[in-house]
Amino acid sequence: MSGYFDGIAPVRYGSGEDIAFHHYNPDEIVAGKRMEDQLRFAVAYWHSFAWPGGDPFGGQTFERPWFGDTMDHARLKADAAFDLFELLDAPYFCFHDADVRPEGANFAESTKNLNEIVDIFQKKMESAKVKLLWGTANLFSHRRFMAGAATNPDPEVFAYSAATVKTCMDATHRLGGENYVLWGGREGYETLLNTDLKRELDQLGRFLTMVVEYKHKIGFEGTILVEPKPQEPTKHQYDYDVATVYAFLQKNGLENEVKLNIEQGHAILAGHTFEHEIALANALGVFGSIDMNRNDYQSGWDTDQFPNNVPEVALAYYEVLRGGGFTTGGTNFDAKLRRQSLDPADLVAAHAGAMDVCARGLKAAAAMLSDGALERPRTERYAGWSQKWAREMLDSDLASIEQAVLQNDLSPSPRSGRQEVLENIVNRYV
Length: 430
Ligand code: XUL
Ligand code: CO
What we know:
The protein has about 425 residues and is of the alpha/beta class. It folds into two domains: about 30-370, TIM Barrel, CATH 3.20.20.150; about 390-430, no CATH class. It has 16 helices and twelve strands. An eight-stranded parallel beta barrel has the order 3-4-5-6-8-10-11-12, surrounded by five helices. Strands 1-2 form a two-stranded antiparallel sheet. Strand 5, helix 6 and strand 6 (about 180-185) form a beta-alpha-beta unit. The longest helix has 28 residues, at about 345-370. The relative contact order is 0.11. D-xylulose binds next to strand 6. D-xylulose binds near residues 96, 181 and 334.
């Protein structure tokens, strides 16, 4: 116990305490499963325990007793993290190596630090409920990664990155992690003037292939996930969005090995909606997991706020449920407090509120789906395609189709897309 959250009662459904769940009831059955098993919430170690509260105009605002770069600080941080997991009754957490251990003087010392903390996690997880949704490597904060990790012009940085990912995959495997994530932190460029685009993409393809090869070598049964993002920190990130990553996976023959971790804020930065990215990943068979947060629509940068917009969240979970729900994936709160939210209670309330928002969204999505309110009109809209001639047309050719159009004097009449009617239906649920 860290003592950091002393005085804050466990967050439970209907507990009547100051911070309680009003909508997230883990045992309630939604769309055929316990809500906890549908949503699979994870706390993100980096934002909740390692982020100091800075912005481009000012540094640290948070004062956490575990801020510092010794192993004692890292151990206290682990205690506080597991205290929060328990307070929230969170089923999962996620971490990068750099979130949990101090940087060592060299690679060997950083790895030793990581393994010592992983030992502590392993011990704590024997008695705690919390499990590891995913692990990942931070290949973007240290200055050695300023020109990328796998895509770096310097092969020594490629080597350092590959070795680091190996240690993080080992740690994830040891902790029973259900996925391993690669977000291409600085895999992109600042200026084309100094960039060999083709070489960098080839390096990235080989790197990801090595990750998949290593997964099989160690018998890791979790899913390898790539997290798309269009820009920030670099001007142009290679893993731009779902469509771009899918093409990259196909080019490297990895489309059956790797799935996607889709983040709300990244979808917005790419000019998409969150539900579009989820729907597209499902359509391509590569949907894996989500990073749930929200972006400020005015700022144009990755604000990583906790979600608080039920209608938006409902449409995202609608696509998750339409695709059959999560398998190894889940809902990771890749979200940080606002920098004025200094208190331990703010950290607890942010997660509790976010879990409630997601629960409301999930319930609305499940009801829309089971009532068929949107699926009936959708099926009706495409009904023409169940006719024999329409299906056969797809196996014919342009010339035969022309003949058929002439013979039958086809003159299609447009039908309403009924967008407002459908939006009104959604509004009844959210
Ligand atoms: C950065 C981001 C990362 C990844 C993990 O925008 O989303 O936190 O989720 O590296
Ligand atoms: Co993320």
